[in-house]
Amino acid sequence: MKTVIILLIVSIKLCAQSSLSLAKKDGGVLHVYSGMAISAGVGAKVYSVTKRPMLAATVGFLTGSIIGVGKEAIYDKVLKKGVCDNSDAFKTIWGSAIGSLCLRIGIDVKQKNDIEKENYQDLNRSIPESSLKDGISFQNME
Predict the structure, then answer these.
(1) For a surface tag, which of 42, 55, 88, 133 has the fewest beta carbons within 10 Å of its beta carbon?
(2) Is residue 96 part of a domain?
């Protein structure tokens, strides 16, 4: 058990270092991931409250896009705390679109699985004896 834990810790450490160097080289990747995380997170919360998949995907996309554009316009340009770059805003919007699409696909797959599960459970319900022809059931066939 100790070996598994040590290997997990070492693998996490190695992955974190390689992704950190990638983020330093291309900050746009972080904008895409941020847009995906924001839109999927907000959309999932909206879906859990409303149970409306299209509304959840739309609100998630708009939230991620507004936050991305707002970060570039307010935080970077007005407050001068970073470098304002329009391509970063577009990358965040692109990430929001991907996150919303993935959320919508996930919701649709879950709904399809729930319907199949319900249909399967309907098949497994016992048939009342009164509905069987001639009152013959498997229990009486001994």
Answers:
(1) 133
(2) yes
| Per-position pLDDT tens, the chain of length 142 | 555 556 556 555 444 444 545 445 567 899 999 999 999 999 999 999 999 999 999 999 999 999 999 999 999 889 888 888 899 999 999 999 999 999 999 999 999 998 888 888 777 665 555 555 555 555 555 4
Q: Tokens representing 2?
A: 């100790």
pTM above 0.90, yes or no: no
| 98 lies in some domain | yes
Asked if the structure places residue 54 within a domain, the reply is: yes
- Residue 136's Cβ-side half-sphere holds a number of Cα atoms within 13 Å equal to 4
In the DSSP assignment, the letter for residue 27 is: T
